[in-house]
Amino acid sequence: MQNAIDSFTNDPFIIEGDLLVKYAGSEDTLVIPEGITAIKEGAFDGVKLRSILIPEGVRVIGEYAFAHTKLTTVHIPATVTSIGEGAFAIKSLQAITVSQENLHFTSGEGILFDKSLQTLIAYPRGKEGAHYGIPSGLRIIGDYAFTETPVSSVSIPRGVGLIGSYAFAHTKLTSVSIPSSVSKIGTHAFAFCRQLINVELSRITKVHRDTFIASPVQLRYRD
Hints:
Layout: E1 13-16, E2 19-23, E3 29-31, E4 38-39, E5 51-53, E6 60-61, E7 73-76, E8 82-83, E9 95-98, E10 105-108, E11 111-114, E12 119-122, E13 131-133, E14 140-141, E15 153-155, E16 162-163, E17 175-177, E18 184-185, E19 198-201, E20 206-207, E21 218-221
Parallel strand pairs: 2-4, 3-5, 4-6, 6-8, 7-9, 12-14, 13-15, 14-16, 16-18, 17-19, 18-20, 19-21
Antiparallel strand pairs: 1-2, 10-11, 11-12
């Protein structure tokens, strides 16, 4: 196993074998070293990072790996197979792009999806635009997918079956119509949406008791 690199050297990446454990420097433009296959959870969390190059060979991006940085764009190389929860929880992030050769992920309009376009994984928190129409064919809105985004209006198409936990938490939604195809809505999915008043949904949809917590919601059932 490679020894950890001293944070006071000219190469302030702390590395163990092929795992990038932590960035201990202060540069805002970085290239991740060749030979790294995994970026540990929280490796760059809170770093004032404005540009990053993730090289081919990286397979795993851990939870909150780039959270709370200053990145505006992120490119996912072909070799990445796993992206942890909150990896791109970045207020300034405007777009996520993915190599066309990646077999697990893809992007559209700067939004991260699984390769089959059935799961929406992450909507960039700094993406401009108040309305978003979720594409038809989608089946899952992932956990934290829209958390803290500026979206105030969203169209959820028939066919979506699951809205994940915290999916729309802390957004500016004012109303939402949830199609009857949605069988389950996760915990805190629409929590802390201070302007969310009108919600239309089916009685057959399973709603967690904390789905709408701290939101002034008035539920309206269509059947």
